[in-house]
Amino acid sequence: MTDTQVQSPAEEALTTAWLAALAQELDGARELREELHREPRVSGEEQDTTSRVTRAMGIEMVPVADTGGIGRIGPTTGPAIGLRGELDALPVREATEVTWASTTGAMHACGHDVHLAALTAVVRAAKQLELPYGLVPVLQPREEAYPSGGRDIVQEGMLEQFAIAHMIGAHVHPGVPVGSVATGSGFVNAAAGELDIHVSGRGGHGAYPHQGSDVATAVAQIVTGIPETLRRHSDPMDPALVSVGTIQVGSGASNVLPKEGRIFATIRTTSSTEGRRLAETIASFAEHQALAFGCVAELTHTEGEPALINDGPLVSAMDAVLEDLGLEHTEPMRSLGADDFSFFSEAVPSVMCFVGVEGNGVSLHDPTFLPNEDAIERVARTYIAGYLAGARTLKQSRHEAR
Description:
Number of strands: 16
Cofactor: Mn(2+)
Distance between the termini: 21 Å
Number of helices: 10
Strand order of the largest sheet: 1-2-4-3-5-16-6-15
Shape: elongated
Binding site for Mn(2+): 110, 112, 144, 171, 365
CATH architecture of the largest domain: 3-Layer(aba) Sandwich
Keywords: Hydrolase, Manganese, Metal-binding
CATH class of the largest domain: Alpha Beta
Largest sheet: 8 strands, mixed
Low-confidence stretches: none
CATH superfamily of the largest domain: Zn peptidases
CATH topology of the largest domain: Aminopeptidase
Helix content: 25-40%
Radius of gyration: 24 Å
Organism: Gulosibacter chungangensis
Protein name: Amidohydrolase
Structural class: alpha/beta
């Protein structure tokens, strides 16, 4: 057993005091969760949410990424551990029947209200304690939309400004057993991007196809050929996918040959490098396929999030701390989904974990998704576990450096 897996007497005392202080904050956290849920703000419009959470935490915050905030408690110098809380809601019309349901046409259907309430309780409880390292709450905007709030926070130099050595993210998930937290080192989420393929040619009359270009057929052939292109040009042991979400061609008339069409798709890979390579391959395929029908195809690849990678030593430390806090660590959750927490994990050793909640048979982003209030404490304990794991790792690295 390594030093990062053993709880020292000082850490045991800190943990006991932190959990006792947390218990006193949970009622207020539940009220805050309901307030945030009742009045959600979508991506790019999170100023009110940031203000409410900042007031509830009772600490000074520095504006970040337009509508977010970042602060620090504990030691004012030296390394710190960052805890990420997402601010934004989704443009989803809520279909729950709770008295505090949103009626604005937006909804916290991804649990961000729970994360923020839990983070607030953790910070308020921690203000009463003597922490070994700084604790930095990161109120991040635009997790659900581009341009990414996580990317902006990293590019604005906030990790360096606040001396963040590790970042911790926690996300509720109905696919994880209640009482468990899914951690797991290595790959967690995909590198994501968007492919926009524009196909153009000569328009014309449907009765005289030889006088025009067959844009519609070219679009169809490109769409149906992308999966085979992926199959032949990617390692079968290295997952990659392209899902076409939008096809636009023609104006509704049956006898008009359209002069342009568009294919809009998402691309997911296990690394940004592989995403760029496959995008170039698909661009070449689309160009040649369009040429066969007298058309021109141009592909624009917009890169999104990098792959989200959990740090191995930090995960090992966190798994041990979770057990100390009465939570089980379970099988990792890995998918070709994407989360802009990956910008943090690309910059500093980090852990993104998933906290089990009751889902009532529905998934994230469903208009009836509503974790019960017990989820707040479980997420709060997970944040605390992440901080303590980061502290153990920092202590160990400093010891080894001597």
